[in-house]
Design a protein that fits this description.
This protein has about 250 residues and is mostly beta strands. The protein has 4 domains: about 55 residues, no CATH class; about 60 residues, SH3 type barrels, CATH 2.30.30; about 60 residues, OB fold (Dihydrolipoamide Acetyltransferase, E2P) (Beta Barrel); about 60 residues, OB fold (Dihydrolipoamide Acetyltransferase, E2P) (Beta Barrel). It contains 2 helices and 20 strands. The strands form 5 sheets. It has a 5-stranded antiparallel sheet with strand order 13-12-11-14-15. A 5-stranded antiparallel sheet has the order 18-17-16-19-20, with no helix packed on it. It has a 4-stranded antiparallel sheet with strand order 2-1-4-3. A hairpin with a 5-residue loop joins β19 and β20. It is flat and about 65 Å long.
C-alpha cells in the first residue's frame, strides 16, 4: 500500500505525494478513502488509497507513433515489437491525418508484418532487458543458455531461437533478451566467426554471377558462398543479418 502525507487538514483540492510503505511495493491506487485523522493542524496525517493500478504501467513512458524510427522498441497490446521500417505519410488535403506505416517484428513470435497508425497514437516502452549468456546445447526441450550474471540455465523454445542456431557453437556468447523478466529470444552480434567444415577446391568455383565464389558448409551446418581462396578448416566472418561471407576471421 502507498500513503499520502500532508502537514495540514485535507481538503478535496489538496494534493499529496505518493510514498511507498516498503521498498518492494509495486502498486499505487486511484481513489482515496474519505476519512483521515490528524491530531493537530501541524501534524502529518495519512490518506490510504485503494483501486490499485500497476506502478510499472503508471510510470511507463509513452512513445508517439510519429517518433517511432527503425530499431525502435515499443509495446502494443501487451506485446513487444521491434521496428524494421517506418514511413510517414503526410496528407496533401487540408484537414487530413498524418499516418505512420510501420514494418514491425513481434519479439515473441518473430512474425513480421506492416500496420498503419495515426501520428498521435501512443505506445508504451516495453520492459525489455538484455543479459549476456553463453550457448550450452539444444535438445528436444529447446536450446539451453547460461546466464552469465546469475549462472542460471535458461531454456528457449525453437520459436524463440529461430535460425540463430545457424550461427551458434558451444560456448558462444550472445545477448539473451528478456521481457517482463522472462526469456523471449536472442540478440546476435552483427558478425560471428565460424570454421569452414567443407568446401571444394577453388578450381571448381562458380563465376556465372560475375563474382568468383564457391559453396562452403560451416561448422554449424550453415551453407554460404565464399571466395575461391577460402580453404577447408579456415575461420571466416559471417554476417548474421544477411547470412553472407564478410571476410576472413
Amino acid at each position: 500500500m502507498f500513503v499520502c502525507q500532508r502537514t495540514h487538514k485535507p481538503t478535496p483540492a489538496n494534493c499529496c505525494s505518493i510514498l511507498p510503505l516498503s521498498s518492494d511495493s509495486s502498486v499505487i491506487s486511484a481513489i482515496l478513502f474519505t476519512t483521515a485523522k490528524a491530531v493537530s493542524s501541524n501534524e502529518p496525517f495519512t490518506l490510504y488509497w485503494r483501486e490499485y493500478w500497476n506502478l510499472e504501467e503508471f510510470m511507463a513512458a509513452l512513445i508517439d507513433a510519429i517518433n517511432v524510427k527503425r530499431k525502435t522498441l515499443f509495446e502494443l497490446e501487451n506485446t513487444p515489437f521491434y521496428c524494421l521500417e517506418a514511413e510517414v505519410n503526410t496528407p496533401t488535403a487540408r484537414g487530413g491525418q498524418t499516418l505512420v506505416r510501420l514494418k514491425m517484428r513481434n519479439l515473441l513470435t518473430n512474425a513480421v508484418f506492416e500496420k498503419t497508425f495515426k501520428a498521435s497514437d501512443k505506445f508504451k516502452e516495453p520492459d525489455l532487458q538484455s543479459v549476456p549468456a553463453s550457448y550450452l546445447y539444444s535438445d528436444s526441450d529447446g536450446s539451453h543458455f547460461l546466464d552469465q550474471e546469475t549462472y542460471e540455465t535458461l531454456t528457449l523454445t525453437d520459436e524463440m531461437v529461430g535460425n540463430a542456431l545457424d550461427f551458434l557453437i558451444e560456448g558462444a556468447l550472445i545477448q539473451l533478451r528478456k521481457y517482463n523478466g522472462n526469456p523471449i529470444g536472442l540478440q546476435l552480434p552483427l558478425f560471428v566467426e565460424l570454421d569452414v567444415a567443407y568446401t571444394e577446391p577453388g578450381l571448381r568455383g562458380d563465376s556465372s554471377s560475375g563474382s568468383v565464389t564457391k559453396s562452403a558448409r560451416l561448422e554449424t551446418g550453415l551453407e554460404i558462398r565464399v571466395p575461391l581462396f577460402i580453404k577447408e578448416g579456415e575461420k571466416v566472418k559471417v554476417s548474421t543479418e544477411n547470412r553472407e561471407f564478410a571476410g576472413r576471421a
